[in-house]
Amino acid sequence: MTATALVDPHAPLELEGVEPPPVSRPRVLLVGAAFASAASAMFIFGLLGVYLNQRALGRLHGGTWLPQAVHIPLTQPNMMMATMLMSSATITWMVYAIKADDRRHAYLAIGVSMLLAFAFLNQTAYLYSLISLDVHANQQSVLIYTVTGAQLVMMVLAMIFVGLMGFRALAGEFTSRQYDGIAASAMYWHTAVAMYALLWYAIYVTK
Description:
Helices cover 71% and strands 0% of the residues. It is mostly helical. It has one domain: Up-down Bundle (Four Helix Bundle (Hemerythrin (Met), subunit A)). The longest helix has 35 residues, at 28-62.
């Protein structure tokens, strides 16, 4: 007859050399960032829908949309698109570096991403100076500034979000076990890049 030891199922298992599973916390920040990304994207979709509708009506009635004196170059928007794609790659690098507990490369990725974002803002300001649209003269200028300006605000918010999460990572809050804040900021950044890609084609390429 063998004796069977009674084991309390609620007692913690203490196995030598085995780490306990990480304590999971609610991913409130990640879910909130998903809602914020969706809301920002829907807002820009709505503005772009108004722009495209007015452009279609203008071409239907007048044959042209932009005034003859307005010329939108394509070189600057193309460079801005390339800059955004590079920043998307460096933001992805940031997430993978945190997942690997490689803080040095994570901070480097954040710095490069911020530099690219500032370059994007600078290129946008230069493009505005080349176009020189008069918001008091026609509705085309108002619509273009409104749609592209909304995406600029979204990009600035993404920079602030990534910067804040970078400071939290510097304080040691994010590791390979828990990196929801970093992933959330990357999600919003990628959404801002996707929105610019949409505007790049709808406004700058097809004009």
